[in-house]
Specification:
The complex is a heterodimer of chains A (307) and B (394). Chain A has a two-stranded antiparallel ribbon. Chain A has one domain. Chain A is mostly helical and 307 residues long. In chain A, strand 1 and strand 2 form a beta hairpin. The termini of chain A are far apart. Chain A is globular and about 65 Å long. The relative contact order of chain A is 0.19. Chain B is an all-alpha fold. A two-stranded antiparallel ribbon of chain B has the order 1-2. The chains are: A mainly alpha (307), B mainly alpha (394).
Chain lengths: 307, 394
């Protein structure tokens, strides 16, 4: 690192670190949904990335509508787009659970295959409806530009916005899991399904709601995704492996673990990216994660569940 | 038959299935298809190797690997490296384009065909051994193993595309024309390669059938259904898993090499997540418990894709997605399971009408597992996600 002064290095770390935080936000939003679905019902949802894309296309749809019909609303549409993205993904998730997933409980490997089939169908549906080209949304003016604390550090505003959103969503999920009736039922079902049923919890409806909420959060991730990148039919597929590793690495069913692993994977990747090429950074990160998983197969923060 | 058949053939019906299969591959296909179609079938048969490997490790071993493309790629790239060296004087063209002046050390031994053949067999086995030891010794299994193998497929793809100078990058290794001076693109060569692939595949299937009929095969199925009982009986479960994973890897490697020979090129697009899952689709459609079924699956899905994707490219993904879902939901044992089911019903029906109409049909044959007697022998998998213990043979 002889070519850089200390000040420059610090600036680089700050900026790469911040880029890592944006990646962390999207990964975390994706992984949160996946983690509660997997933790609750041991269902592997390979179509999770496509639920994210549903959210992204919803945002895109609303933004084009606003641009053509009500330009004055442009500054505020994101506040509608995010709930709409959640709702769309939630509804589709609800239907998918009712039609497909509920037949496959207790066959985790088969849910993986069936949802892969679903992912293929959804990708082609996106392609047929929105076209194969990547689309991007028009950002409100207050989301553009960047914040410069010093001359060398340059932090994009939309990255900050995503982080704030992630903070809210994570807090919301944590509240729902640990403070609401629904969360109580979910945690009951996770620790002992038969017993929960015996004390009067309708585990079937808890399952359905959990799946739909998980998909809805993926929808929010999609809305966040549109502000930093353009969306194509296969955008979701790019993130799905990383997201799974985040969930597995963190220890399924542990909110804290999911956060910690999303953070370390995203940071590791984006800081390494500066020193070696992007693809090698990814290879190295994935290898380290697999290596650590060998030492701790249950993940970093495995929840202790009796079976 | 005059002499007693070896056990692993699976009795008269097993022999019949094998003979039909061999006749189809060696007589019917060459007679009914033109050279282009036949060489296409040869490529699908190459995928059949991978599907057969998946039947062993997924169907019987319960180990779902979503990274079989890596082993397919290893075999394929080994073959491609040898042929590329033969095609170029000194340095392969893509290396020159990437300003690499000297042949990398790991390319050197691929000048020799003997080494290449060993590499095709041993490289996938070695990698599978490494992954297997690392994962199974730590008791990583099921979903976790599937996800990790998928991550390995991603890593391999990124490495191949990223290290363009050594691997040919996203284009792959192209312009492979000859094997030991023999032009592989002529019609006669394509037909010869088709036969070679078909014969090898039949051999591989026999090996698989034999393996399943041994004591090892019994333990494999027992392990899939009740791993802890097998462990408590004193077997080292991890070693058995590693072995079957290696076998599946070697099968895939052979498939990859045969594919490269016929296709004349190899690229990262046969390594990543998508092809790896496609192999699983073949096995699932054909029947995860039937070696022959998996090959039929590869042929059917392969030809359907060619026909459908040409006529209605938009509909293909809808179709294959739905087929996959339907197969997983309603026929977990694929076409082979369907056939087995129909045959049994037909037999029971015939027997009933032959004897007296009210007699109950005899119980289905082929329930083989430790402690499986009180469980349903067919259809729904049981509560802990393992498959039920019916064996489907075709």
């Amino acid at each position: 690192m002889g070519d850089f002064t200390t000040e420059e290095l610090l600036a680089i770390f700050a900026m790469q670190g911040f880029a890592g935080l944006s990646l962390f936000s999207v990964l975390l939003l994706m992984a949160l949904g996946l983690a509660i679905i997997y933790g609750q019902m041991r269902v592997i949802n390979m179509a999770h990335g496509e639920f994210m894309v549903i959210g992204a296309y919803t945002t895109y749809f609303i933004s084009t509508l606003v641009v053509s019909q009500a330009p004055w609303f442009l500054d505020y549409y994101v506040f509608i787009a995010v709930p709409a993205a959640f709702l769309m993904a939630f509804i589709v998730g609800w239907i998918v659970e009712a039609v497909l997933i509920r037949h496959l409980y207790h066959r985790p490997l088969d849910t993986l295959l069936a949802t892969w089939g679903l992912a293929l169908i959804m990708q082609q549906a996106f392609r047929s409806i929105f076209g194969a080209r990547e689309v991007s949304v028009r950002l409100p003016s207050w989301l553009q530009g960047s914040y410069q604390p010093t001359l060398m550090i340059d932090i994009p505003i939309n990255g900050i916005a995503i982080m704030v959103l992630t903070l809210f969503v994570t807090a919301g999920v944590a509240w729902m899991m640990y403070r609401s009736r629904w969360g109580l039922r979910v945690r009951c079902t996770v620790s002992n399904r038969e017993m929960s049923g015996a004390v009067g919890i309708n585990t079937r409806s808890v399952d359905r709601l959990t799946f739909a909420v998980g998909c809805g959060i993926a929808g929010i991730a999609g809305a966040a995704f549109t502000t930093i990148s353009s969306t194509g039919p296969t955008s979701g597929a790019l993130y799905i492996v990383d997201t799974f590793l985040v969930v597995v690495f963190g220890g399924a069913g542990s909110l804290l673990g999911t956060m910690a692993s999303a953070f370390s994977i995203a940071q590791g990747q984006s800081i390494l990216e500066f020193f070696i090429s992007g693809s090698m950074a990814k290879v190295l990160t994935l290898l380290v994660v697999i290596g650590i998983l060998m030492l701790r197969p249950e993940g970093l923060f495995a929840s202790k569940v009796r079976r | 038959m005059m002499n007693k058949l070896p056990d692993f053939i699976g009795g008269r019906s097993g022999l019949l299935g094998l003979l039909v299969f061999a006749a189809l591959l060696l007589l019917v296909f060459p007679a009914a298809m033109n050279v282009d179609q036949l060489s296409l079938a040869g490529r699908f048969l190459a995928f059949g190797f991978v599907a057969a490997g998946l039947v062993l490790c997924w169907g019987y071993g319960g180990i779902l690997s979503l990274g079989q493309g890596v082993f397919f790629g290893l075999g394929g790239y080994a073959m491609a490296m040898y042929m590329k060296l033969e095609a170029s004087d000194g340095l392969p063209d893509f290396m020159r384009w990437n300003r690499i002046t000297e042949l990398p050390w790991f390319w050197e031994p691929f000048h020799s065909l003997t080494f290449t053949v060993f590499a095709i067999l041993l490289l996938p086995a070695a990698l599978a051994y490494l992954i297997g030891i690392a994962m199974f010794k730590r008791r990583v299994s099921g979903v976790y193993f599937a996800i990790i193998t998928q991550a390995i497929a991603v890593i391999t793809t990124i490495l191949i595309i990223g290290q363009q100078g050594f691997t040919g990058g996203a284009n792959g290794i192209t312009d492979l024309r000859t094997l030991k001076g023999w032009d592989i693109h002529t019609d006669s060569a394509q037909v010869t390669l088709y036969y070679a692939t078909a014969v090898l595949l039949i051999g591989v299937i026999l090996v698989g059938k034999w393996l399943l009929s041994t004591k090892y095969g019994r333990i494999l199925v027992a392990m899939r259904d009740r791993e802890d009982r097998v462990r408590f009986s004193g077997y080292d479960v991890a070693n058995f898993k590693v072995f079957i994973f290696c076998v599946a890897g070697v099968f895939s490697g052979i498939g990859g090499a045969m594919f490269t020979l016929q296709e004349g090129f190899m690229s990262a697009s046969f390594v990543g997540i998508v092809p790896s899952i496609e192999f699983v689709i073949f096995a699932a459609v054909g029947g995860r418990l039937s070696l022959l079924g998996a090959v039929y699956g590869a042929l059917i899905v392969g030809f359907a894709k060619v026909m459908f994707a040409e006529a209605y490219p938009q509909l293909w993904l809808f179709l294959i997605g739905s087929v996959f879902i339907v197969v997983v939901l309603f026929m977990p044992y694929g076409l082979a399971g369907l056939q087995e089911n129909l045959t049994r019903r037909l037999r029971a029906y015939l027997r009933r009408t032959e004897e007296h109409p009210s007699s109950t049909p005899s119980p289905p044959r082929g329930t083989t597992s430790v402690g499986a007697s009180n469980r349903p022998s067919q259809g729904e998998p049981d509560a802990d996600g393992s498959l039920s213990t019916q064996e489907v043979r075709s």
